[in-house]
Amino acid sequence: MSEARIAQDVLVMKGMSKETLVLLYGGRSAEREVSVLSAESVMRAINYDKFFVKTYFITQTGDFVKTQEFSSKPTDAEKLMTNDTIVDSQKIKPSDIYEPGAVVFPVLHGPMGEDGSVQGFLEVLRMPYVGTNILSSSVAMDKISTKHILETAGVPQVAYVTYIEGADLDKAIVDVNANLTYPVFVKPANMGSSVGISKADDEASLRSAIDLALKYDSRILIEQGVNAREIEVGILGNGDVKTTLPGEVVKDVAFYDYDAKYIDNKITMDIPAHIAPEITEEMWLRSNSLSCHWWLWFVTLRFLLNRRRPRLPQRTKHHARFHPMVNVPTALGKHGTSIL
Q: Top-level CATH class of 227-335?
C-alpha cells in the first residue's frame, strides 16, 4: 500500500476524509505531451488540505494506466508517467477509475480528450467532472463550428475559408486567392497547441500547408493573417462568471508555433496587458456575452487587437492549458483566484 493511501486511510479513521480528485492526463492526440506538462502543474497547485489526488494516464494507444497518488504536494522532482515509462502491470479497465464521491479533472488536450468524448464517458460513469459539458466541448473544439457560433453572437472575426477533405481543392485555393490576401494561416479544425498549423505566403506554400493540416484533421480552416497584438482573457464559472485581467502574448518569434510555446520558451506573458481601459472593457463584455452560448467553467478567449478594434479570430479554448507559460492560470493568480 502506498504512503499516500496510508495517509488517506488515517484521515478517514479520524473523520477528516479529503475529497478524492482524479486527474486524467496523457491521451491519444498529438497534444499528449502538453497534457503531461499541464497535469504536473495541476498536481502541484492543488490544495492538499482538501483533496486526495489519484492520477490515471491514458496512453497513446488509449489504454488506461493507474499511476501515482498524492496526499500532499509533490516535490518538483516528482514526474508523472509518460508513454516512455508505462508500467504494463498497472493497466486497468477505463471504468476502473470510478469511485463514489470522486471528482474527475480531465487534463486532456485535443481530440479524444477535450472534444466531448471523455466528457461523455464520464457522464456514463455518473462521475462529476471539471470543465464544460459534452455539447460545449465538442462545439468549442472545432474551430469551424466555433466560427459559426461567434458569427451568431455578432463577434467580429478575421476573414476565413474552409476546406473539407475530398472537396474540390482547386476551388478552395481560388476562394482563398479571391477573398484573402497572403499571408494566411492554415489550421486543422480539431487540434490545438499550434499542432499542424502553418503560415502560407503564396499558393505553393498554401497547398503544402493544407497537406500538413490534413494529416491531423479532415476539416481545415484557412484564416487571413493580420498584423495585430494577441490578447488573452480567461473566463471562470458558470452563472457567476469571472473574467481575468487581459494578458498579452509577447513573442520572440515570427510564428507562435508548438516549439515556441512549449519547448523553446520563445514567449512570455505580459499581465496585465498594456491596453486602453475601454478596450479591456470591450473584451470583458464580449467574453461575458459568450456565456450565453456556452455552458462555461474555464475558458480562454484570444483576441487579435489591431488599430480598429479587438477581434476574436481563433477558437475558444474551453479547457485551458495549465502549462506555466500559459496566461490564464497566471492571470487568475494575479486576481487572487485559485483554480483549485
A: alpha beta
Cis upstream peptide for 324 (omega within 30°)? no
> In CATH terms, is domain 3-130 a member of 3.40.50.20?
yes
pLDDT at 187: 95
Burial class (CB in 10 A: 0-12, 13-18, 19+), 7: middle
- The CATH number assigned to the domain with range 160-224 reads 3.30.1490.20
Predicted confidence band at 334 (pLDDT cuts at 50, 70, 90)?
Answer: low
Q: HEC states along 14-58?
A: CCCCCEEEEEEEECCCCCHHHHHHHHHHHHHHCCCCCEEEEEEEE
Domain range list for the chain: 3-130, 160-224, 227-335
pTM of the model: 0.76
Beta strands of 48-114 (E only): which ranges?
Answer: 51-58, 64-70, 91-92, 103-108
Cα 286 to Cα 311: distance, rounded to the nearest angstrom? 10
